[in-house]
Please model this.
Amino acid sequence: MFGHSLKLFELFGFSIRIDASWFVIAALIIWSLSAGYFPQIAPGLSQATYLALAVVAMLGLFASLILHELAHALVARRDGLGIGGITLFLFGGVAELKDDPKSAASEFRIALAGPAMSLGLSGLLGLAAMVAGGWGLAGLLLGYLAMINLVLALFNLLPAFPLDGGRVLRAWLWHRTGNMLDATRRASGAGTMLAFVLMGLGVMSALSGGGFGGIWLALIGFFVLNASRASYQQLLMQDSLRGRRVVELMTPDPWTASPGMSLQDIAERVMLTHGVSFVPVVDADLVVGYVDTHLMGKIARTQWPRQTAASVMAPLDPSAIVAPGLSAQEALKQMAAGPHRKLIVQEGQKLRGILSLRDLMGHIAVVQALGGGTGSADRAGP
Ligand SMILES: [Zn+2]
Model:
């Protein structure tokens, strides 16, 4: 989801990044402010002034989003949760929580912190705008930022998971029933419903001459729809892996290559013969790296007889290794956070197997087809 993000700076120990999609949105915001909003509320200024106002307003919006996410992140850190960082993308930001909140009360506090920050900012900026009312351009900017922070607070409070309001709803349902998965299902169901309403309103407004506002609304609806489905799916996957260990789901005793083996031999005698795309390189019982079809593809075929596994293999880094006793949920998180879709299962220094994303997904598919997580029995509701 955060494939192409750019790190900007650090704030309170959190790294602040922006997703590539944000540049598109920033350009759209500058355009709609300089061509629409500012000429409308303050007619008669030069085009250059509108553009400058729009750029500063966009930067102010940017800072407002960061402060909103920072509030979530600080409360989450105080509650003992790991935070990956803050990424701004399409319609807002995400404080990337590494774990789910430990209790409904914690989720409630973390979810409310962001809108509370936006509301507070809106109040302060509104006050400043009133004081600066006679200052012209400064008053215009402060007024816009007060309004946009109010919009941020209210929009995020919509009861549609994974928006903040949806998280508050989930915390309440979770608190009432004690079943987090079911609370998430219902809160993201509300998110899906709201998304369709937003998209419908947006399309209707665009068709009846609402123009840009309608398109915004439809886009936001589309974003909420995807996000609500994705976050429930993610939780469902984690739940399906509950209680499983890497050793139960891995492919044991995989085919290996020695460091001196030529790429030609690896392709013909290992990959094609046994139908595997990922081959650990083992030297005297120790895993020293791996060769896969992706690495092979980078070397010209004519070089395959001359190149050895040792000369092209990827070295082992910690993000490519798991222990057999690790929980499958942790292994999935490791895959999601790192670049590897296949992990080498090692006990001490000894190769035990390979765990692929396909192994995990296969297990998840079976659990889903049989109708629920392995842990559902101990959490059965009333
Ligand atoms: Zn928020």
Remarks:
- The CA atoms of residues 297 and 304 lie 10 Å apart.
